[in-house]
Amino acid sequence: MIVRSFLTYFLLTLGLAASTLPAMAQSASLAKNVIIFMGDGTGLSSLNAASIYGYNKPQALFIQSLPGIALSDTSTATQWVTDGGAGATAIATGVKTSNGILSQSASAIKDQQDGEILKTFFEHAREHGLSTGAVSNDDRQGVTNALTAAFFAHNNNRGKSGEIFEEMLAPKSGLPGLDVAISPGRSDVFAQVKAMGHDSLAEMKAHGYAFTDSITELKKIDQSRTKVIMMTDDLQMDLKTGVDDAIARLSRNPKGFVLVVFSDCHTGKARTSLSRIVEMDNIMREVAANHKQDTLLLWTADHSYDLRIKGEGLTETLKKNEGKKIISAVSLEDEHTAEEVPVMAIGPGSERVHGFISNTEVFHILMQAPGWEQATTVVAGGTR
Ligand SMILES: [Zn+2]
Questions:
Q1: Nearest by Cα to 38 from 364, 360, 341, 248
Q2: Which of 12, 87, 241, 338 is a good FRET partner for 303, with 20 to 30 A between their CA atoms?
């Protein structure tokens, strides 16, 4: 009996200690800023290949050294295999929707019927007085690509770049538009605005934005201009220059900022996809070196896809080869895949990134980092 009651006491104490840990961690430090790195398609198999491609060894990416790591289910409200619209909506709003939809509920029917408007992490940030920004290397849709757009736009069709662009400038919520937007995609997006009978240059001006179509010119726009759009036709736009410029401008807000950085690491070319992972990983490494004390930096993917190194009997997979040669042993099938994707984080709030989670949980991790939402439930394996 005594042994049993002692055991009960011991287990209760353990349980209490576990339940107070997240609260202690939360009060210890809150994030002033949050930066989300969205690596399109960056599942585990892509990270494995990118590390070998970039460094000739496994687990050499910066993100593979981060203290917070979780594996996130990416299924949608209605499908086992997600697209970027539903995947990013879950992360941006904490609610699963259907493929093709942007931050509207699953009652939406693509291109036919609106669902309920889902409040996004960026909209919460706006209400708390923070600045907002998006940087993307998407070659066609730019910052109106679903992975960044889900944070600031609500549309029953992720392809409606013109409408998404206008919502970026003037949200239907009445909250201010995005402060900083930097990406390629100028011709395609502006053509869609024009097709709606509108003039993108006039609209940007009317909403107080400085605009340029060149990343070199962006640097010349006075840093005191905090509402800035750079959209270019230069597909080689340097992502790092864009991220540095966005952070410099957004940092002028003493209340903090939220920023989403997108890299298209899901292309039909293995070399391009893997190079982009290494590139964005290096950007995150540098940003973390300067900002990890007061900024939650989190990398995740909308979905994985079938890029992987295969073939135990192949000479191409011998370790003695130069890492870059692994490209010849990479198998790539373009379809999205259903398995979990990694979520990796550093900075205040990253202690909540652990275990097998839903992609909707990423939203709560983002919301809890600055203290906008409390971790309410303690369950085995972590909070919520
Ligand atoms: Zn994707």
A1: 341
A2: 241
Contact 208, 177 (CB under 8 A): no
- Gap from CA of 161 to ligand 1 centroid (Å): 16
With a CB cutoff of 8 Å and minimum separation 6, the contacts of 113 are 107, 156
CA 88 to ligand 1 center in whole angstroms: 9
User: How far does residue 8's CA lie from ligand 1's centre (Å)?
Assistant: 48
> What's at 136, amino acid-wise?
S
DSSP state letters, 255-310:
T-EEEEEEE----S-HHHHHHHHHHHHHHHHHHHHHHTTTEEEEEE-S-EEEEEE-
As averages over each run of 10 residues, the pLDDT of the chain (384 residues) reads 43 42 55 98 98 97 98 98 98 98 98 97 98 97 98 98 98 95 98 98 98 96 95 96 97 98 96 98 98 96 97 94 94 96 98 98 98 70 48
Question: Are 255 and 20 within 8 A, CB to CB?
Answer: no
Kindly list the domain boundaries of the chain, sorted by start residue. Answer: 31-383
Instruction: Give distance in angstroms: CA of 220 to centre of ligand 1.
Output: 33
CATH number of the structural domain 31-383: 3.40.720.10
Q: Residue 198 is which amino acid?
A: H
Distance 214 CA to ligand 1 centre (A): 26
